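Hi all, a correction to my earlier message: I attached the wrong file for Tripartite ATP-independent transporter DctP family solute receptor. Here's the right sequence:
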Amino acid sequence: MKFNKLLLATFCAGIAASAFATSAFAADYDLKFGMNAGTSQNEYKAAEFFAKEVKDKSAGKIEVKLFPSSQLGDDRTMMKQLKDGALDFTFAESARFQIFYPEAEIFALPYVVPNIEFSKKALLDTNFGKELLRKVHDEQGMTLLSVAYNGTRQTSSNRPINSIADMKGLKLRVPNAATNLAFAKYVGAAPTPMAFSEVYLALQTNSVDGQENPLPTIRAQKFYEVQKYLAITNHILNDQLYLISNETWDDLPADLQKVVKDAAEAAAEYHSKLFHDGEANDIAFFEQQGVTVTHPDLAPFKAALKPYYDEYLKKNGKVGQDAFDEFSQIK
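and the right structure:
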């Protein structure tokens, strides 16, 4: 009997110790970060940095689990999940907000946003950008944490592009997105929408003459194997926003809000560095693979897009004109 009591006491003590150990190391907040990017992409690497930073700086109170490769749906679906409180973090581009507010398309208009510093000022410092973020917060249930650079779109082809004249008649694969289609159309190319999975073979067989994507994508997809010319056309800059659900944000105490915000700012810097460094390395890599890199004068490219800017202004009226006016003042 004494043995049984001793055994029971030992067992109970073990359970208590186990429960204490679990509670001592369990996070107070288990949060989810969904994204389209796969595990080999810069976005995922930056999200890993963010998750580690949050865990370390919160002393383990916050754990962030990553869900890459569109496991939770596309970006539109994940933004809806943030609004509903079903997901805690996701990425989105500023221009992607045009699915809610058409005027946000300005961030993707070719040649309107020349660099990431301009993009940040346009979003964070202008009345247009502040109002857009207010609506995203109040109506879509999302709070902006930080802004990162996510690459600039360039043009690879099966013939050299030394000037806008060389774009004439070029069968250019573009995604089925209005701004990309407009770029191809107004610079004189023949826009050819096509599923991304089909692009390599289409380039290889000359079903299309070229395509446009950020440099890391061109490298990752090995388009340099079937395209020996690359033009630095710098036509659309991609930013990447770190977004948090309002429900999640409001649930965090002030000290942990600061941890998350600071971690997002640090992750955005790391994110941007990955892309900036990668682009410099990519150009050298392409040249080593025998790709000829050209730098056409971009002033005629931008001038050719004016009719599309006029379309934007017609669609968006005063709010669109105000955005253009404010963007033109950014230094």
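Sorry for the mix-up. Confidence is low (pLDDT under 50) at residues 15-23.
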